[in-house]
Write a structure and sequence with these properties.
This protein has two helices and four strands; from the N terminus they run E-H-E-E-H-E. By secondary structure, it is of the alpha+beta class. The termini are close together. The relative contact order is 0.37. The chain binds iron/sulfur cluster (2 copies).
Length: about 55
Amino acid sequence: MNVIMEKCKRCLVCIGVCPVQAISDKDGKVSIDKSVCLECGCCASSCPNKAIEY
Ligand code: SF4
Ligand code: SF4
C-alpha cells in the first residue's frame, strides 16, 4: 500500500510516472486511487521528497 504523506510538495513528478494514472491532484492534495494502483513502487522511487511510503 502506498501513502502520500504530509511532506508532499505537490511537485507532481509522481503523477507523470504512474503507468496507470492512479495518482491525482485535486482539492490541493495529491492522492492515490488504491482501486487502480498496481503497487509497482514507481511513484515512491521517483518522489524527490520521499513523500510516498511504499
Ligand atoms: S505504485 Fe505504481 S501504480 Fe501505484 S500509484 Fe505508484 S506508480 Fe502508480
Ligand atoms: S512526487 Fe512526491 S512531492 Fe511530488 S507530488 Fe508526488 S508525492 Fe508529492
